[in-house]
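On clarity, I found the account of how folds are encoded harder to follow than it need be. What matters is that the chain and its backbone geometry are given together, residue for residue. The format is easy to grasp once an entry is in front of the reader. For illustration, here is how one protein appears when written out as sequence plus structure tokens.
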Amino acid sequence: MNAFARSLLLTASIFTGACGTMNAARPLDAGHHQVGVTFGGPFTTQLGPPIPVPNIVVEGRSGLDPLGALPIDTNYGLNVTPLLFGVTGLHTGVSVHPLAQHGARPALSFTERVLLYNNLLDSRKPAETRTIWALNELDATASWALGHHLVYAGVSNALDLADPELLVSPFLGTELRPRGGAFAWQLESRWLGANFSPDVYDVSWLNTGDPGHGLFTFTVSAAWNVGKGGSK
């Protein structure tokens, strides 16, 4: 992949993976559901002080029947912000949870997610520029329960399905569940594309230097457990 194509991939990631989703660090039991909204993303410094890009994702998670003894759940959502630019963005995926927390040893989960975007219905753009593109995102997450709350950390890799290449993003977050109830806040930061330093940025972003490696993102999620109950 040449530098220009990788720059396009990083830009696409800003409006896909960079907007963030609810964490899948802990499994949902079969028939249990969670709905939420995530706000935030990278910080542009184009006007001087860091200003967050107002990405908004509306999403849900649902617990599935386990694979033997392996808990599994699915996630799905809509990225609202790109609709303003004539782009429809959806994601769906599955999380598996092979290891439960045991003392200081963290729980471990893996999430496989596909993000599908298109501008086919945007009549404002020339027909030859309307297309479909997709990213695959694989997350590995370690998590520790602290009472009713959760601290988690991990690493994510985004692949352009048309031209796969590593785009690695470490992340750190916390889930705060007041009084152990059905509502939770999630605060998360990612170093998006930590292994990639483009030759040119069309827009300046908060990163590690000039031009720096990757972008720093911050997201806030509000989530509600609905249906039978919530996560373990």
User: Anything to note?
Assistant: Confidence is low (pLDDT under 50) at residues 1-10, 12-18. The chain has one domain: 3-227. Residues 14 and 196 are 14 Å apart (CA to CA). DSSP finds one helix and eleven strands in the chain.
